[in-house]
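Sample pair:
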Amino acid sequence: MYRLFCDSNCELWYKTVDELGLNVIKMPYTLGEKEYFYDMGRETDFAAFFKAMREGAVPKTSALNEYSYIEYFEPVLAAGEDVFYITFSHAMSATFNAMEQAISQLKEKYPDRVIRTVDTKTISLGAGFIVYYAALRYREGATMDELEAYVNELVPHTATYFAVEDLTYLYRGGRVSGVSKVFGNLLGIKPILCFDGEGKIVNVEKQKGFKKAMAALRGYLEAKGSELDKYKIFVLQADCEDAANSFVADIKAAHPEADIVVQPVGPVIGSHCGPGTIGLIFHAKER
């Protein structure tokens, strides 16, 4: 027997997490002087969080330490079960150094138990997309080998694209230069970003204005989308619900049978992309 783990940076909605019986490793963020751990939307005040950002607050995120991972994994191992953890992109955080240290310690203490991790090479509902479909296989009784093979096959076919309203937040995270931030915001430039095969964020194009940015996102869905009748399409919105609903309506017009799930961006991811972000996740010929 083994338990399936994910982390809150996959951003699956808490009701979905409950339905699938997932074990969630909660990632931290700090707003003001208080530290929080994202609860997958269970009690999160998204409006208050993004309002604070719009008013100048600068939330921060941090990595877990090795003891936190031990606290999550050890009770499962002590009960005689194994651990299978589907992670967000290892290229995005130093937290996985602590995870590896924790796993090394636990393997010495529980040599007969198995701890397996698989990198989705994406984040937010890109990772959530993979976790969701992997969890369905898990519930059907997939072995660890079968589940790992399935996840590794799905990773290169999971596309995560997003457009941001304000370049300031990407600048703080080192994604754009100071000059790009200033002139981009003045000119209304909206970068379109995605995750490459290594799990790193790359800027694939720039559009002038929100409407053109949304058209560009839909263009990637049309050009790269595959098996859209089989897989859900996820749309993320960071305090811009009306814009997201309009975006979804346009997708529905082209794909009336599509199963589209709309969710708010959580505070950890929102700390880096900022309010006004729209994200699009779908099954693709290639990411």
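DSSP finds eleven helices and 13 strands in the chain.
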